[in-house]
Design brief:
The protein is α/β, with parallel strands linked by helices and 358 residues long. The chain has three domains: 3-89, OB fold (Dihydrolipoamide Acetyltransferase, E2P); 93-254, Rossmann fold, CATH 3.40.50.300; 267-328, Orthogonal Bundle (Ribonucleotide Reductase Protein R1, domain 1), CATH 1.10.40.50. It has twelve helices and 13 strands. It has helices spanning 10-16, 52-57, 127-139, 156-168, 186-191, 209-217, 267-273, 275-281, 298-304, 310-328, 333-336, 338-353, and strands at 25-33, 36-41, 44-50, 70-76, 81-87, 93-97, 105-110, 114-120, 143-149, 174-177, 198-202, 241-245, 251-254. The strands form two sheets. The chain has a five-stranded mixed β-barrel. Strands 6-7 form a two-stranded antiparallel sheet. Helix 3 crosses helix 7. It binds guanosine-5'-triphosphate (GTP), magnesium ion and zinc ion. Magnesium ion binds next to helix 6.
Amino acid sequence: MDLSDLGFDSWFEEKRAGMGSSDWEIARVTRVDRDRYLVRNEHGEVQAELTGKLLFSADSSQDLPCVGDWVCVQYHNDGTLAIIHDLFPRRTFLRRKSAGDKVEYQMIASNVDVAFIMQSCDLNFNLRRMERYLVMVNEGHVEPVILLSKTDLVSAEDLEKRISNIREERIDARIIAFSSTTGSGLEEVKQALQRGKTYCLIGSSGVGKTTLLNHLLGSEAFETNAVREKDSRGRHTTSRRQMTILDNGALLVDTPGMRELGLMGVGASVDDSFSDIHELSAQCRFNDCTHTVEAGCAILLAVRDGSLSEARYQSYMKLVKESKFHEMTYVERRKKDKQFGRMVKTAVQQLKKRKPLS
Ligand SMILES: Nc1nc2c(ncn2[C@@H]2O[C@H](COP(=O)(O)OP(=O)(O)OP(=O)(O)O)[C@@H](O)[C@H]2O)c(=O)[nH]1
Ligand SMILES: [Mg+2]
Ligand SMILES: [Zn+2]
């Protein structure tokens, strides 16, 4: 194995020249659990810690390592501990708005090639949520693939209907429908996974992300849990983000199911996910049309004549509103993040407790 098997390529190679000391080695972050990290290089996976400098110079949690990051490390204690000195720039990223009204982002993973947006075919299926995930994935320059899980729970006709519902929303990402229970479609999922490429599973709790990972690994390596009977909601079984290398050499990140998916996008990525509406807006009579009350609004006209669904119009307007709000409060974002401040404080306390390295 070499670093290219872990996804290192010429893009990162070019960045390397500008990165600190030549004694530093390169590794990839494979797990983050609060302030504890695992990193992997061609020789294996070890625990890692941040230097105080890296911690202090971070303005927000986004500046700290996340799963998928390439980092510069020094190995200590016979190679059993790595100290992380620096982070490579991120080529792509997945990040979400933190729960609550505060505008702060949480990194999910970085340097991901393909995001598997997973929804199960039963009660979890929701087009508005799918659009939100697509906006998030677009914003991070990641390619989306939609995974429809648990096809064993619906009839073939219902599955067809779900897929045409997705296409009606003009979502043109690849769709793979599968069932971990019957094994149907699993081969197609496997075919989509390539050696040295990074994939990330995202979606609500209980949709079957970890079950799929276990199937791909051919073992019950990771814990899964039954969904609640009443509403099929999951129980938040997976609690940390972790990257696993599959037999075929693909790198797969499993993530905890998201409770609430705030919008991560700025205007441009909203428009990417709603390119049809964006095109329509060019035909509005006024340049500054808000698409709400104006005469000559091409979007309202399309809703009225039925060529644009009202639900899709509403979800577009909701996203636009949220993204405006995000832009407005951008400056306040860092100051407000008390949670991040607390995290730094505990991490610093732990650094002080740590024995000096031999
Ligand atoms: N019927 C059916 N059940 C499935 C399928 N795949 C997974 N499940 C069940 O769904 C439940 C939740 O699966 P998990 O893999 O734990 O879900 P998860 O997405 O990892 O959930 P979190 O870790 O909480 O985010 C488990 O009881 C699985 O056995 C499937 O294809 N069909
Ligand atoms: Mg899980
Ligand atoms: Zn308009």
